[in-house]
Amino acid sequence: MTLLDPKYTAVVPLPDPIKMPLAYPVARHDAQWAAFLDTWIELKQRDGTIDALYRHWILGKDAVVRQPRWSIVRDVLHWVK
Fold this sequence. Notes:
Elements: H1 31-46, H2 49-57, H3 72-76
């Protein structure tokens, strides 16, 4: 939300950021699904995906500012800025 709307902000408590555990609900007797999720989360932690997502969505790092799309109203008629 912070990247989409400037009135929101992500707050990171410094000097020691808090990391929360990740949880997915799993049906009580679905051991295969639980094992799959455990493996998937471990793989994503090992390959750096979770850290990269945290840096992007929570810390706002590596964000690219998008240019507005071309518009007849704005770029040709100059009715809005």
